[in-house]
Amino acid sequence: MNLLAAAAFLFAPAGQESSAPEKGKRFYVAPDGVPDGDGTNERPWDFETALYRAPGIRPGDTVYLRRGTYAEGRWEPSARRNLEPGRRGTFGENAPILLKGVVVRSAPGERAVIDGGFRIGPESAGSVWRDLEVTCSDPRRGAEESDRRPPRPAGFHVNAANVKILNNVIHDTLIGVGSWSDAPGTEIYGNVISFTGTSAPARGHGHGISFQSRTGPLRLEDNVIFDTFGVGIQGRSESGAGLNDVSLVGNVVFQNGSLNRESVPSGPLNRAYSYNLWVAPDATSKNLVVEANLTYFAEPWGRTQIGGESANGVPRCVGSKLRGNAFMDGAEIFVLNCDKQIASNAFRGAVSWVDGGGSKDEAAFREAFPLNAFLGRRRPDGLQVIVRRNRYQAKRAHVAVYNWERAGGVEIDLAKAGFGAGDFFVIRAVQDLAGRQIVGAYEGKPVFVPMAGWDVAQPAGWDAPASTFPEFGVFLVTTE
Q1: Cβ neighbours of 303 (radius 10 Å)
Q2: Residue 367 class from Cβ within 10 Å (0-12 exposed, 13-18 middle, 19+ buried)?
Q3: Closest Cα partner for 197 from 170, 218, 179, 235?
Q4: Neighbours of 298 (CB within 10 A)
Q5: Distance of alpha carbon 117 from alpha carbon 152, whole angstroms
Q6: Nearest to residue 352, comparing CAs of 331, 322, 323?
Q7: Do 434 and 333 sit in the same domain of this protein?
Q8: Strand 68-71 with 112-115, pairing
Q9: Same domain, 355 and 387
Q10: Which range marks the domain in which residue 34 is found?
Q11: pLDDT tens digit sequence for 171-228
């Protein structure tokens, strides 16, 4: 019997894409734009003019970034000094970004690269940031243990309401996206996040997504997060910040902590933070939904934790739902003090369960929640291809493959991603988006994709992690 079949939600569609037409005016920015431009395609602004002065830009407008690189490397306000050569800073740190209700995105068919990061404050509430590549080219990855925040920017710090971070590629920043307690209504969707963080003597620092949610809602959906120094997705309620009304749905999270080597790129692996998911609410947190997420570690040392230590027997995630997930972490899975809506999950690893009455062994967990699959630490069998269709862009999808039988290739049904006969497609492995591609015109039948021969990109200033192929692979499918 294929035990993963118990996780029925894995194969649920991700929903139809939104095809709402753009509203408002269009403005253009270019790397060689000028402050006295007019924001047209012919006379684009420079990036700082659009961000900080926003002449004539109103809610509902769209700012298009032309191809090229936009670097923030002039000043680090927290240190009150000019940045050293090669260091990168944060747009919005020194002065607020003034783009409330505005869409910021790469121009159609072009690739805008941000070499730095963003802090999105109340002056940009309701803004949308999408289709960008956000990175940090600085090769220096070390940090003293006393300094957990070296001068390396986060991809996005969100400190404003109703912000959307959509379909970006974020890599080599300190964290990918941070959404904090003062950011209700945030949506983090469809992003590919990797190589985040820095090394330190005790452990690595820098997670793929880090979040709090005092009131919610907060939606973290259909992101792919892998090969970080820290945790893949971390949510911790500290100092009353809360984790309320949070949905983690359809994320693919694998091999996180794999860059966490002791102080040097080729040093021994430090497993202290080898968590794909670490979501730890406090006793006041309510309505946590963890559904249809996929995790993976190649070796049996990975971990996932949902829930937190109890306070006087009070559950820590009241109204929680844990369903339809495939936790293929291999080592340990902690389910701590959550409500009892736990079903249709597949667990690979030793399960530790704690409720208000104290610790329970795995046998007790199995008895209490029989509608789940328990694999222990053994490798599953079979082959699963999971297509997650993008909600914000037509003919875009993430495809995850559990290839436990180590087949030479798999067939992907692009119709599940919205493709029709004759549509052009491009298939890339997320571990090396700039590398090998499979391209062609869709003929209305499944496309064969090999599960070997895919490279892994090299992080800035660090050794490349190991490939997950042929046993596991994640692909990005688009039309370009």
Answers
A1: 26
A2: exposed
A3: 170
A4: 18
A5: 9
A6: 331
A7: no
A8: parallel
A9: no
A10: 3-374
A11: 999 999 999 999 999 999 999 999 999 887 677 789 999 999 989 999 999 999 999 9
Residue where one domain finishes, among candidates 340, 374, 408: 374
d(CA 428, CA 326): 23
Q: What is the dihedral of CA 400, 405, 406, 412, to 10 degrees?
A: -40
Domains held by the chain: number: 2
| CATH number, position 224 | 2.160.20.10
The sign of the CA dihedral 36, 38, 39, 42 is negative
Confidence of residue 147 (pLDDT cuts 50, 70, 90): very low
**430 CB-side CA count, 13 A:** 32
Cα distances (Å, whole numbers) of residue 68 to 102, 310, 328, 339, 375: 21, 50, 39, 49, 48
Whether the CB-CB separation of 188 and 177 falls below 8 Å is answered with yes
147 plus 14 within the same structural domain: yes
Q: Dihedrals φ, ψ of 62, to 5°? A: -125, 135
Q: What pLDDT, in 10s, does the model give residues 241-298? A: 778 899 999 999 999 988 876 545 555 555 666 889 998 877 677 888 999 999 999 9
75: region left, alpha or beta (phi > 0 left; psi from -120 to 50 alpha)? beta
Task: Examine the fold and report which residue of 351, 374, 397 is the final residue of a domain before the chain moves on.
Answer: 374
Distant-in-sequence, close-in-space partners of 202: CB < 8 Å, separation ≥ 6: 145, 270, 272
- The Cα-based distances of 116 to 47, 136, 173, 327 in angstroms read 13, 5, 8, 33
Residue found by looking up tokens 């597949």 in the block: 346
Identify the bridge partners of residue 160 per DSSP, sorted by sequence position: none
Structure tokens, 222: 């259909």
CATH number, domain at 463?
2.60.40
